[in-house]
Amino acid sequence: MFQSKKPEYRVLVCGGRDYGKRWDECHSKESELVIVHGAATGADSLASAWAKSKHIREMPFPADWSGGRSAGIERNIEMLEESEPQLIIAFPGGNGTAHMVSLARKTKTPLLVIEDENS
Predict the structure, then answer these.
(1) Who has the most CB within 10 Å: 42, 47, 55, 56?
(2) E strand segments, 7-56
(3) Is the pTM value of this prediction over 0.90?
């Protein structure tokens, strides 16, 4: 992995399990981009694959499901607090995505919600 002198620009990504378009539109070249994600299938795995293909650093936050059904919510809170993203991009998804969008709004973290093309 290479080290850059540019300041990091952290982007937290969340979304549904079946999203698959428009990912390259989110690429920024002004800062050292870091992709933050929940290490889940769908949008998270697409974010991870895209980051790997572009040699961009990742910060994965897998949920510890052994702790029960609240693991996703706990992971979302941890992911937001620890990564301190400058932007959250939310692709269409389920309850976990809705929770992250709610957290972004509560904390006034800049948020880009990608609308579902089928809505």
Answers:
(1) 47
(2) 8-14, 32-37
(3) no
